[in-house]
Amino acid sequence: GELVGGEEPYKIRAQDGDQPGTVNTMITYYIEWVHKVGFQEDLGFFRAVNVNDTWSNTSYCQLMATQNLTWQRGTYEILLVAEDSGEPKMNGSTILNIEIQDSNDHTPEFWFEGCLKDKLQIKMEENYYQPGDRVLCATDQNALELEILVRDEDIGENRDFTCDIDYEKSTAVPVNGVDQLQDFELKRESDGCVLYVNSIIDRESGRRYNLSLHVKDKGTPPRESWEYLEVIVTNAFEAPPYFCLEGMCKETVYMKENDPDVTSMFLEAIDPDNIDSDPDDDGTYEDVFYNIVGGTTSFFELGGTNRMNNSIRLRNLPQGLDREDVPEYQLYIDVTNDPSVQPPISEQIPRNYTLYLTIIVQDENDNPPEFKKAITIASFTQNDEKGKKIAVIEANDVDLNETITYSLGKFAWNDTDGTVSTDEPFKIENGADLILNFKPTGLNSGYCTFRIYAHDKDNNTNFTTAKVYVITNAFQLPVSFNNGIREVSNKTEDIEDIFTSVYQYSCVVDSTTAETSDSGEAVEGQTIVYMHFIDETQNEPVPKNVIIQ
Main subcellular localization, coarse class (predicted)? Predict the structure, then answer.
């Protein structure tokens, strides 16, 4: 029912010898039957469309398909009848032969059998194939060939195809920026495609490839499709493991005293053959074994059960280590791919597969610093200057001889109105003072949350969550005390606790100042405390009129 390729459909005319322009020459066309050559079934694939040619005052017909002709390729006979309108009606007929040709309406697709049927992945051992070799399912003896077939429901040139590797769509896992992607080639052979290598594939020049297999037919217009085949290059196990590249390989580890079950990890060796390999895959991973070959071998042994664990533990020490007896020990540890036990050495020799381990016995320290409050609340006003101390951080450690240091975590501003400092709005000075580190002019509201970390000398760490609020005059409540400023200042925490209990909002004292007379002189024994309150459920300061009411 459509024009194809811009061509005009055939015009089929019948001739009538009667007088032109009369009903005797008014011709109507119809199809009596449609048979596939060699068969008698009437298929009804076509109908005759009658067209009046006003220029010549005649009529003709054109054939139109009555249904989609997909899958109906072949030669057909059509009995076309022309009938006039006279009395009696007379007709004539002719048999037309029509060939329904193939259209390139199917895309060629890869079809995989054998080892590729369930998963498009193969493994090849490095250095196994020579240039020009055909790639097999594996590099084991008697490995099967890859079955890469191509399916296309079309025929003729529409089914003919070429296949190759689309290098632009393919990817590789290179080593030091080098890969061998271009050394793989896909060629057509018979009804399928074959994968070849054009050079020796080395795992140190590429670990893994995702090859984009490409097939394209020769129809007009051509159709094409892609599939990805993963190629994993496995080891030939040719490089030994090492701790360091050159010089004396040294490391210091720590083990607590008084603990018979204490363990410590030491430097994990590097095996170049195992880079990007799966430890659970025997084909890509080479086992690495550790051996204690010198030092205080009577008190230490390797962790685990198979000498493949880079850890040490105690032996023959049911009470654990005693720092007051021996503060440190030495161990010499070798690494190898050889599962047999390595011979001992009596002195330190510079070699990259031996680690000289110093074990320092730690004084037991199993308590991190503890903060007095789980949440530390602080605040500042628009009028405060950069550098103002807004809180003193307090944490204690029950362990002896501890030095506590503090650090701040990531800052997060919430519900702000105005410009905030995003780099370092607060900092620690003088060991434990929380300092305002920007000028807050124009910042009308909001609060900042962050963690304050406390670290002891062994880096045991705990934290409190800090909430620092922006306080304006609408939230700051002045309270007069009949006490001197020194006495009031020393009772700041008590004042905060009492007011918090009474008003059920967290009270924060902003400042204390001596009360002044109308002449501006300080009034002895009178102190003004400026405070504000925080509604912690809403994460916002409470207006002072709410407190007053």
Answer: membrane
Spell out the residues 6+ positions from residue 205 whose beta carbon is closer than 8 angstroms to its own: 174, 175, 178, 179, 180
Centroid of chain to Cα 378: 39
Using CB atoms within 10 A of its CB, is residue 290 exposed (0-12), middle (13-18) or buried (19+)? buried
Task: Name the token pair of 115.
Answer: 């080892």
Structural element, H or E, at residue 184: strand 184-189
* Cα distance between residue 149 and residue 371, in whole Å: 70
> Is residue 265, in this structure, part of any structural domain at all?
yes
In 287-327, beta strands by DSSP E: 289-295, 300-302, 311-314
Torsion-angle region of residue 548: left (phi > 0), alpha (psi -120 to 50) or beta? alpha
Residues whose CB is less than 8 angstroms from the CB of residue 106 and which lie 6 or more positions away in sequence, other chains included: 152, 153, 154, 158, 223
* 488, 528 Cβ separation under 8 angstroms: no
Residue pLDDT, tens place only, 282-294:
556 778 999 999 9
Residue 162, domain member (yes or no): yes
- Cβ-based neighbour number of residue 104 at 10 Å: 20
**Are 422 and 450 spatial neighbours (Cβ–Cβ below 8 Å)?**
no
Beta bridge partners of 376: 466
Identify the DSSP state of 401.
T
Give the predicted TM-score (pTM) of the model. 0.41
The domain containing residue 53 runs over which residues?
23-100
Model pLDDT for residues 488-544, shown as the tens digit of each residue:
999 998 999 999 999 999 898 888 999 988 888 888 899 999 999 988 887 688 999
Model confidence at 1: pLDDT above 60: no
Q: Are residues 328 and 217 in the same domain?
A: no
Per residue, what are the HEC states of 491-514?
A: CHHHHHHHHHHHHCCEEEEEEEEE
